[in-house]
Design a protein that fits this description.
Layout lengths: L8 H12 L2 H13 L2 H28 L20 H33 L11 E5 L2 E4 H22 L2 H29 L12 E2 L5 E2 L1 H16 L4 H4 L8 H28 L2 H5 L4 H46 L17 H15 L1 H4 L2 H33 L9 H22 L3 H12 L2 H9 L13
Antiparallel strand pairs: 1-2, 3-4
Helix pairs in contact: 1-6, 1-9, 1-11, 2-4, 2-7, 2-9, 2-11, 3-7, 3-9, 3-14, 3-15, 4-5, 4-11, 4-12, 4-14, 5-11, 5-12, 6-9, 6-11, 7-14, 7-15, 11-12, 14-15, 14-16
């Protein structure tokens, strides 16, 4: 890739912030209100923020210590085993597959949120009028239009990225800048509209489907998976490490992006809980708009919806870029199907981009039979479970380096890095445990992960030497 197509610190940071502050900021206040009281929500944010900070520090450290292992946290899986062994190849492929599936689901969470906020201007997107019925299936007008809007956004993004990753990155930077300014204005308005009464009772029991009471710690546990979704994307700079102008920018962008996103999430999530009563918040498909509309009326809601749409377009660009980069970089390391190495003249991984978006289109079908909020809830759980394994693997790999002393001169920094790696590992295990509590969702997520075995044979038949540079151009 030419120097003109390299990504600098601010574009890398915008990818981190843009990918983290995507659909979550718009939809999570409702999802969290369903499972936790205000105290539980804040507790989940604090614990998740600390856990993800440890994971982000692991990513940044590995990017500097192992600059040849770029393309995302899943790349480290093959390094846990003997180089060239079957275990190394299989673990690398399966981790890459799971991480890729998580990205596919993540894309659709953002795209469906875009459709939800577009309904502010076009209420017909939520219409319950029936188009036709086939057997037990009934297609409603709103679902059909939502499907078309989501499809249009996906493939428009596809063609923008085909014109070059640097230009797409610049568009993402502009959208992220507009997003941050819009959220800053929201926070200012929300501070004046905050009502303490909406946060009361601050600590209250929730009930599960069986009617059993869930205490504060149980609520924090249940909310942990949703709050982690907000931080998915913290590894974005790591995925694009090979395209960075300076390797040190990867660590800087990861840390800076995390703190910016954390401030936005905690601030807005808390303020929304103080602007809407719990019942209204739980039943809202557009919680931020509903909150701002209580202060500024419909006009304020439309302005915020406009900012949200710009933000989500930027997030879609960033996530589709990241999703297509994952199997491409894995193939460069000899851990994915060779066809994914194919690039166009702009250096865009064209085959990976096409396959990624075709599979993403399949996820969009979830909008045909579900409401926007139901589709969002479904895909974020699947996506988050898919991400946890590569996050866990990254922490274990960091521990391996600390224990063996590899890349450490005179033992400098080993103790601190070891503590960080242990905390990151414990956090990953805790959230995995929380996420597997719902057996139905867990089994579906594992089925998607296991489906990679169907394609593993193709990799064994056509192995690609690690670091292969002889890629075809379209």
């Amino acid at each position: 890739m030419s120097k003109g197509n390299k990504l600098g610190l601010w574009i890398l940071t915008s990818l981190v912030v843009g990918n983290m502050v995507g659909s979550g900021i718009f939809m999570l206040p409702r999802s969290l209100a369903e499972v936790a009281s205000p105290a539980g929500v804040i507790g989940a944010w604090v614990l998740t923020g600390l856990g993800v900070l440890m994971t982000a520090l692991v990513f940044g450290n590995l990017a500097i210590r192992k600059p040849n292992l770029n393309g995302g946290p899943q790349i480290y899986a093959k390094e846990l085993f003997k180089s060239g062994s079957k275990a190394s190849l299989l673990s690398g492929f399966m981790a890459s597959w799971g991480y890729w599936i998580g990205n596919l689901a993540g894309n659709i969470a953002i795209i469906t949120t875009f459709a939800g906020y577009l309904s502010t201007f076009f209420p017909v997107l939520t219409s319950k009028a029936e188009l036709f019925t086939i057997g037990s299936f009934t297609l409603k007008v709103g679902n059909a239009l939502t499907f078309l809007v989501c499809t249009l956004l996906l493939w428009t993004t596809h063609f923008i990225i085909l014109r070059g990753l640097e230009n797409a990155g610049k568009l993402n930077f502009l959208a992220t800048s507009a997003k941050i300014m819009g959220f800053a204005l929201f926070i200012i308005v929300a501070l004046f509209a905050f009502e303490k009464a909406n946060m009361l009772p601050f600590v209250a029991d929730k009930t599960d489907e069986a009617g059993n009471a869930i205490g504060l710690f149980g609520q924090i546990n249940n909310a942990a998976l949703s709050t982690l979704w907000a931080f998915i994307g913290v590894e974005s700079a790591v995925v694009f490490a090979s395209r960075a102008r300076k390797q040190v920018d990867v660590k800087r962008a990861t840390t800076l992006g995390l703190f910016i996103a954390l401030a936005i999430y905690i601030g807005i999530s808390t303020l929304v809980m103080g602007m809407l009563d719990q019942e209204t918040l739980i039943h809202s498909d557009k919680p931020l708009i509903d909150a701002i509309a209580t202060v500024l009326g419909p006009i304020g809601g439309k302005v915020l919806a406009g900012v949200g749409l710009i933000s989500l377009i930027g997030s879609t660009l960033g996530w589709v870029m990241l999703s297509s980069e994952v199997p491409y970089q894995a193939a460069k390391q000899g851990m994915f199907i060779p066809a994914f190495l194919k690039e166009n003249k702009k250096g865009t991984p064209i085959f990976s981009l096409i396959v990624t978006n075709l599979l993403g289109q399949l996820f969009i079908f979830s909008t045909v039979s579900n409401s926007i909020s139901a589709a969002f809830d479904f895909v974020i759980v699947i996506a988050t479970l898919s991400y946890l394994i590569p996050y866990f693997i990254s922490s274990i790999f960091q521990l391996k380096l600390v224990i063996t002393g590899e890349t450490y001169e005179n033992g400098r920094g080993r103790v601190v890095d070891g503590v960080i790696a242990v905390l990151s590992t414990v956090y990953s295990l805790w959230v995995i445990k929380a996420g597997t509590a719902d057996m139905k969702t867990f089994l579906f997520g594992m089925l998607l992960l296991a489906s990679g075995i169907l394609f593993y044979g193709q990799l064994k038949k056509n192995p690609v030497p690690s670091g292969d540079k002889n890629r075809k151009s379209a």
